[in-house]
Write the structure tokens for this entry.
Amino acid sequence: QLQLVESGGGLVQPGGSLRLSCVASGATMDYYAIGWFRQAPGKEREGVSCIMRSDGSTYYADSVKGRFTMSTDNAKNTVYLQMNSLKPEDTAVYYCAAGPFLCRADKYVLTVGQYDYWGQGTQVTVSS
């Protein structure tokens, strides 16, 4: 079994930055895509980004492209989501997830149903 734990959320003003972390344990990360999702109150869970642990290739939702970036530290079994130029619309609980597929440049990799393992989430609030 794979366990995922998110951290790094908090309160930030519009235009500010946060970096989220997702630490994996319990299984190898080989062949797995790692995704970030978010869920605002009253809304469905939304795909944000995806990264391949093996080669670092990434894919981003249009809503965050140019503002958010993913990266990996494989020695620490950790992936990061650097969030810049944050907007109030970015307020949500952010989840990391793992799936057994290739993270390619396709909106399909940002769908909830493709992921098997989920963390508990970390709250991000963007407000003045």
Summary: The first strand starts at residue 3 and ends at 7. The mean pLDDT is 93. The two ends are 40 Å apart (CA to CA).
